[in-house]
Amino acid sequence: MTNSSTSEVPVSANVPPSDAQARVSQFMKGLQDDVCQRLTELDGSSTFLEESWQREQGGGGRSRVMKAGTLLEQGGVNFSEIWGDNLPPSILVQRPEAAGHRFYATGTSMVLHPHNPYIPTVHLNYRYFEAGPVWWFGGGIDLTPYYPFREDVVQFHQTLKDTCDQHHPDYYPTFKHWCDEYFFLKHRQETRGVGGLFFDYQDGRGKLYRGPDPEGVAAQYSDRVGELAERSWEDIFAFVQSCGSAFLPAYTPIIESRRGMSYGERERQFQLYRRGRYVEFNLVYDRGTIFGLQTNGRTESILMSLPPLVRWEYSYSPEPETPEAELYKTYLKPQNWLG
Amino acid sequence: MTNSSTSEVPVSANVPPSDAQARVSQFMKGLQDDVCQRLTELDGSSTFLEESWQREQGGGGRSRVMKAGTLLEQGGVNFSEIWGDNLPPSILVQRPEAAGHRFYATGTSMVLHPHNPYIPTVHLNYRYFEAGPVWWFGGGIDLTPYYPFREDVVQFHQTLKDTCDQHHPDYYPTFKHWCDEYFFLKHRQETRGVGGLFFDYQDGRGKLYRGPDPEGVAAQYSDRVGELAERSWEDIFAFVQSCGSAFLPAYTPIIESRRGMSYGERERQFQLYRRGRYVEFNLVYDRGTIFGLQTNGRTESILMSLPPLVRWEYSYSPEPETPEAELYKTYLKPQNWLG
């Protein structure tokens, strides 16, 4: 049977229930609904336009995008549920047991690009896979400020930690570190922002942190992650649901604190410049983007994470002792925000 | 010896001369000089700023960038000459004989982003590699119009064909097709523009077109490419020099025809939107970009190909029967421009 290789884990704990796909996809859709509803209230002037789409090889989704709102310059909140003959090579490298099996994948992903440079960009994605003998949950959330406030970063991370701690004391430290590693632009030697949570291949078997990670920087953290008792499918799904539900409490207080702050051309130009890093990350490194493009996903939905307006400037670096320099100096490095 | 596996090719024809590296790098620098000088004359108001840089693992380069010129919104013309212990995996897959050998690489690359949407963006790159038993030339040139004129495309391609035909009758058809395949955005099902020339791994041995190509679309053209008599290092270097020298005659007539055309916000916005495709191509597919980032190249020099200002718009498509629709309908598909 499928779990014969992990003798510590009883088979019963490590098999999805028969209604797993329906329950997860219902949760993912509900998360999309809740988030869109609250963001529409907060925006106050614009709405999300929905497009439903089908994928030729199996499945489909509903993309919701708000353009040119009061609060959001662009916001995309996407649900998808797809299936097909084979997972793409980028995933099979990580889960060779899935080779030759049909797969099912569902998830919600979201990127919000506010107008105001004092409000950070935020990204969320939670996803669930089944393929032959294996299943797993993955995803996370991360915050990308332009002009950061330490108290915002602390509030964001504290909300995530409180959520994680309800499920397992190792979750926050492990997934927070994984996030710092994953959202790292090697060619810039910068984190994408101030991090959050990231995890992948959570299937209840042993370690929380499952390598190999393509970035190759994971090994340094492995000693922090002990062997765990098995976690069931229900345990992990409950955790993912809590994470999803933590999005609004983690992010919306920052909107409310910062949306009234005025800014000028300088702040706008810096925001556009820093958005270039977001594009670089998503197109060069991001697993979700690469998965989507490799599986003939819907290009417009995959790339709705890209900001509406972006600037590159050759050889730019901020003047010392400015707020822009402070972002680089203090915030774009992995650190313990809850010190 | 190095060529023992290709028995048709005499060793003498297929070994670089002892001054190969010096001659190629001198040519590449000279090309950078000539192009920058002529573009500075054409711009008339701005100049290229040069930064010389060194690479810790060996070598360096000189980056030249013009920002906010009269003609060019941004133009980067880069020369580099680097060496090190090992080629990165993306190249070793194509040239396994180079594994375990030190390498040398030199080249010139250039991307020009004019202000005026009636003037196409243009890209050029020529490069030379040596690694243990193998050496090769690669590179090409391609044109990316926003509001194309057929006569400009014809003039560009005719100049390239005339240049190729001086060296070998198979060069233009083969390298023109390779360009169409290479500069193709699979996730958009569009060519990047109207093509030009592209070739890689030219080492004088047999076929002009050497697979496997990572895009996997090469096979359909293989029947057009016959086996050739050997070409010497000198033959191929002479061809690459001609290609480099063809840049100004291929592109500057288009500048001169179109720079006086007036345009408005509509054309500007479409230009910014289409520049997004340029970013997508360079970050997702481009070998030179991936090579540079994988070899710890100088990030600012590698990414100076990215446009200064870019726009993404979810679910945009042009109104039928407009000049914008004409770009998609007529120009973003591989075709024979010289009738």
Secondary structure elements and their pairing?
The structure is a homodimer of 339-residue chains.
Chain A: H1 20-43, E1 49-54, E2 59-67, E3 72-84, H2 89-92, E4 103-114, E5 121-131, E6 134-144, H3 150-165, H4 171-182, E7 184-185, E8 190-191, E9 195-202, H5 233-245, H6 247-258, H7 265-284, H8 287-294, H9 299-302, E10 309-311, H10 323-331
Antiparallel strand pairs in A: 1-2, 2-3, 3-4, 4-5, 5-6, 6-9, 7-8
Helix pairs in contact in A: 1-5, 3-6
Mind explaining what this structure looks like?
The structure is a homodimer of 339-residue chains. The first copy, chain A, has helices at residues 20-43, 89-92, 150-165, 171-182, 233-245, 247-258, 265-284, 287-294, 299-302, 323-331; strands spanning 49-54, 59-67, 72-84, 103-114, 121-131, 134-144, 184-185, 190-191, 195-202, 309-311. The first copy, chain A, is an alpha+beta fold. In chain A, the strands form two sheets. In chain A, strands 1-2-3-4-5-6-9 form a seven-stranded antiparallel β-sheet. Chain A has a two-stranded antiparallel ribbon with strand order 7-8. In chain A, α1 runs parallel beside α5 (233-245) and α3 runs antiparallel to α6 (247-258). Chain A is globular and about 55 Å long. The termini of chain A are far apart. Residues 1-11 and 211-226 of chain A have low confidence and may be disordered. Chain A binds chain B through residues 51, 63, 65, 67, 74, 76, 186-188, 272, 276, 279-280, 283-284, 293, 299-300, 302-304, 306-315, and chain B through 51, 63, 65, 67, 74, 76, 186-188, 272, 276, 279-280, 283-284, 293, 299-300, 302-304, 306-315. β10 of chain A pairs antiparallel with β10 of chain B.
